[in-house]
Design a protein that fits this description.
Distance between the termini: 101 Å
Number of strands: 12
CATH class of the largest domain: Mainly Beta
Order of helices and strands: HHHHEEEEEEEEEEEEH
Number of domains: 2
CATH architecture of the largest domain: Beta Barrel
Structural class: alpha+beta
Largest sheet: 6 strands, antiparallel, barrel
Radius of gyration: 33 Å
Strand content: 15-25%
Length: 287
Amino acid sequence: MLSFFRFLARHTAYLFFLLYCGISILLMQLQRKETLEAIRTQGLTVNASVAERLSSIGGLFALQEYNEHLLLQNARLFSRVMRQETVLRDARDRNILTAKDSTRAYGRFFVARIVDRRFSLTDNMLVINAGWRQGIDKDMAVLTPDGLVGRVTRVSENYAKVMPVINKRFKVSVVSDSSSTYGVLSWNRGSETVAHMENVPASSHLKVGERITTSDHSTFAIRGIPIGRVIRISGNKLFSDIDVRLFVDYSSLSYVLVSPDKPSAEKLEIISEEDVKTKSDMKPLGR
């Protein structure tokens, strides 16, 4: 290494001469038209590549805004379909159509994005980027145009925790479309695409293929929200064992709608009072 530095020190003048010659040749080449055209072409290529990448990034943000816009449109259409289906169901059940039924509204939804999720054999959970500051409250129904996703169980300022249908603690009152068979939907672990319908007497007229929606008996969801379709019916002499294929695909869920509409507060208060009274009647007498 020492000899190398001695060589550089001894031939510094020659090295500078070679460097100046190289720079002169480079400047001469840059004066040639072909070289200048090649540099310009290469510059255009690099510029176009950078612009394309920046455009792609901007396109992603634009696509996200477009998706949110489409989701809002779907929400409006979904609310209209729900309203029409509810009116038709009432007309079918009572053979009467009143003005009150025709003006019942389900038209307002909050749009939220899923920012976290926890999937396990039992305690599945979702977190959305909307809280009480955005109008979200506990026990609001969470859904998509495909069907019911779950219910809000906890709310912070800008986030909310959602218990999905595929949670062992989740239950919702449901009814079938064709036979008007009532039951309670729950999830018995296993597949995230299949839930179970309980409390259905074996004498019911429920059939495979019927669509299941939320019923008037629900304590948190408005009626008429799609849930799934019956795929299997079995059981004993008293109650049927019913499997329901869920409409919502949780593996690809990104955006959801939160419905501020709830069952009547008066109805919930009566149910709550009845539950408290029942529990107090079951307490053993003191000595």
